[in-house]
């Protein structure tokens, strides 16, 4: 089983790990894409005003430029601890026990705009780059789409839960051959009985689901096993007519 998560704009400072080591990241085939992209970002950060404009940053976020300038030199920490925001607050990776963290490191991937797919335990520095950041050509989508899709194709025989936002799905579409991949849609049922998709609060639902999955520590073989576990553990999962996996919160 593989669980795909989106990144977050916000990230924790610091870390106790050594500076960025591409060899320490999962999916080594992506190194050929990672290295030139990291160089582009670090070089652009030497011109702070331009980088702030490219990343659409206001004065209060000027520190993000310095993060990018030092991206190959600053300390690292596990990706699951680096990212913050609603989803990652619900996941609360720093509070997971060692067994759950080990399961996350093996089965959870975070789709970074800078590094592509990284394992939850991979050591990454703080940085700022989004799916729609405007760098010089080629675009971020052009850089990543084919490379990430190829990595996902390698997992076509596994159950893959795609919890990414639609913007990051476009940065690495699931290939048609990966027929056991399920995009997760988070919904709620109103007083009128109508199911509606959630926006902001869908992130909390995703984070809580992933936390429960890694704490349970079972490598589910298929979606039916996953749905049955959800029914027994208070996570209302079902398959929609279009093949998407639905989480009702």
TrEMBL record:
InterPro entries: YaaA. GO terms for biological process: response to hydroperoxide. One of its GO terms (cellular component) is cytosol. Pfam families: H2O2_YaaD. PANTHER family: PEROXIDE STRESS RESISTANCE PROTEIN YAAA, PEROXIDE STRESS RESPONSE PROTEIN YAAA. This is YaaA family protein. It comes from Herbiconiux sp. A18JL235.
């Amino acid at each position: 089983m593989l669980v795909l998560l989106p990144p977050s704009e916000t990230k924790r400072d610091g870390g106790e790990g050594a500076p960025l080591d591409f060899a320490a990241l999962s999916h080594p085939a992506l190194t050929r894409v990672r290295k030139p992209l990291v160089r582009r970002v670090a070089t652009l950060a030497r011109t702070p005003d331009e980088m702030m404009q490219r990343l659409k940053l206001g004065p209060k976020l000027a520190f993000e430029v310095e993060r990018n300038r030092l991206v190959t030199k600053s300390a690292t920490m596990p990706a699951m601890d680096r990212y913050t925001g609603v989803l990652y607050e619900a996941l609360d990776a720093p509070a997971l026990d060692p067994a759950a963290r080990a399961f996350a490191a093996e089965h959870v991937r975070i789709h970074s705009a800078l590094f592509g797919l990284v394992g939850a335990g991979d050591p990454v520095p703080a940085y700022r780059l989004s799916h729609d950041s405007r760098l010089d050509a080629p675009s971020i989508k052009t850089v990543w789409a084919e490379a990430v899709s190829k990595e996902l194709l390698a997992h076509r025989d596994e159950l893959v839960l795609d919890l990414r936002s639609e913007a990051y799905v476009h940065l690495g579409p699931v290939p048609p051959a990966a027929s056991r991949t399920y995009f997760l849609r988070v919904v709620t049922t109103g007083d009128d009985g109508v199911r509606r998709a959630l926006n902001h609060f869908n992130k909390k639902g995703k984070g809580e689901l992933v936390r429960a999955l890694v704490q349970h520590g079972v490598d589910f073989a298929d979606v039916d096993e996953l749905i049955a576990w959800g029914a027994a553990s208070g996570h209302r999962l079902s398959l929609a007519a279009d093949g998407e996996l639905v989480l009702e919160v």
